[in-house]
Write a structure and sequence with these properties.
Elements (H helix, E strand, L loop, with lengths): L23 E2 L10 E2 L5 H18 L1 H6 L13 E4 L5 E4 L5 E3 L3 E6 L5 E6 L3 H14 L31 H17 L8 H8 L7 E3 L16 E8 L4 E8 L3 E8 L7 E7 L6 E2 L10 H8 L7 H39 L9 H26 L1
Helix pairs in contact: 1-4, 4-5, 7-8
Bound molecules: zinc ion (ZN).
Length: about 375
């Protein structure tokens, strides 16, 4: 009888048995990873690496996870993220792109020519009314109650974000290397063949096995309207290299060295998927064309290269992110407006509509959609 293979934890080297095996996501769950591997790391290491490395990676991409409404496996939406707009306002970015002030703002300034200028922004109508009541107590000679009638409730306009992204670094880098080894494991490459990367993960002082790669685009048929993550593996026995390419959200692009002494088969395989839906995508990554000098750049972490290269990645990725967000918001707004209009007109699902009711519904729907449409039109200018 064949002996079952004995797996060792890629992180601590412990033998993996049924009791301490864990299901590890190839790409971390927090940024939309779906596919899992078994017999890869032990349960303790899964918890430890998950908390430290993957959490740092998730933090670096929290803006993307929130704005794209990337669902966790359990269906829980991405947590809200605090961001700052360019006019220095702190807002919460909720899953799906909704913005909310972190706290109400209030300004009460005495004007040099006498009188006062009071301005505030509240998060809800109730909060606005509470502020007005406060003002009424402070300045009883004025009538603030009439203002409560004319309150303009407007969804917070996103404006322009002060975007500060930083990718990579010690912990997030280790998460990326772990992802590359997990992908290799999933296509049957034994762990000992990933010696260079495994040594790095097990030893705090080892030379990093990864480097950012923006020197040129390694994706042959880069999609121009889809958000995707990709993990690709290449084995090149001629140059004795086993290496990987990991790209998240079109922006963070890394080459990972798995082995510098590879003697296995020639391999080229990739796994790409849309993190918002989990749908797998066919994608060709041209890893074999990486030259020896480009590999050296990666090992010395000099392949991130120019500011222009980074900007080009941003200019590619951000319009796609925003178009995906807009499409989602439109869909949500239409769904909500239709639901509200049906409730208002007392319509129920499956009901036949006569011409009069259909017209009523169309009018009601347009009214409900108006704030969303106005908001959209305003943002275009
Ligand atoms: Zn372990």
């Amino acid at each position: 009888m064949d002996k079952l293979p004995v797996y060792q934890c890629a992180l601590c080297g412990e033998s993996i048995a049924m009791e301490n095996d864990s299901k590890e996501h190839i790409v971390p769950l927090a940024i939309g990873g779906r596919r899992k591997v078994r017999n890869f790391i032990c349960r303790d290491c899964n918890n430890r690496a998950g908390h430290q490395w993957d959490a740092e990676l998730a933090k670096q991409f929290s803006w993307f996870s929130a704005v794209l409404d990337i669902k966790r496996e359990s269906g829980t939406p991405a947590p809200k993220v605090k961001i700052t707009t360019i006019d220095q306002q702190e807002v919460y970015l909720h899953a799906g792109g909704r913005l909310e002030l972190t706290k109400p703002t209030f300004e009460d300034v005495a004007l040099p020519e006498g009188g006062r200028q009071i301005s505030f922004r509240a998060r809800t109508e109730r909060e606005a009314k509470r502020i007005l009541r406060g003002l009424q107590c402070k300045y009883p000679e004025h009538d603030f109650s009439s203002m409560a009638e004319g309150l303009v409730i407007e969804s917070t306009t996103p404006g322009v974000f002060k975007a500060e992204f930083s990718f990579g670094g010690e912990f997030a880098g280790r998460s990326i290397v772990k992802t590359a080894i997990a992908m290799a494991h999933s296509i049957g490459i034994p762990q000992w063949q990933c010696d260079y990367a495994v040594r790095y993960l097990r030893n705090e002082n080892a030379t990093p096995a990864f480097g950012e790669f923006l020197a040129r685009d390694l994706i042959v048929d880069r999609p121009d309207s889809k958000i995707f993550h990709v993990v690709a593996i290449a084995g090149d026995p001629v140059h004795k290299r086993l290496f990987a390419y990991v790209e998240y959200f079109g922006l963070a692009r890394f080459v990972v060295h798995l082995s510098l002494d590879y003697s296995g088969d020639s391999i080229q395989q990739s796994y790409a998927f849309d993190p918002t839906t989990g749908e797998e995508i066919e994608l060709q990554v041209d890893l074999i064309s990486l030259s020896e000098s480009e590999h050296s750049l990666v090992l010395n972490n000099e392949a991130a290269s120019s500011f222009e290269a980074r900007m080009a990645a941003f200019e590619y990725a951000m319009p796609i992110v925003f178009s995906v967000v807009r499409a989602k918001q439109n869909q949500q707004a239409i769904g909500q407006a239709l639901e509200d209009a049906c409730i208002e007109l007392g319509l129920h699902p499956g009901q036949e509509l006569d011409e009069k009711t259909a017209k009523q519904l169309a009018k009601c729907l347009t009214n409900k959609l108006m704030p969303h449409l106005l908001h959209r039109i305003r943002r275009r200018h």
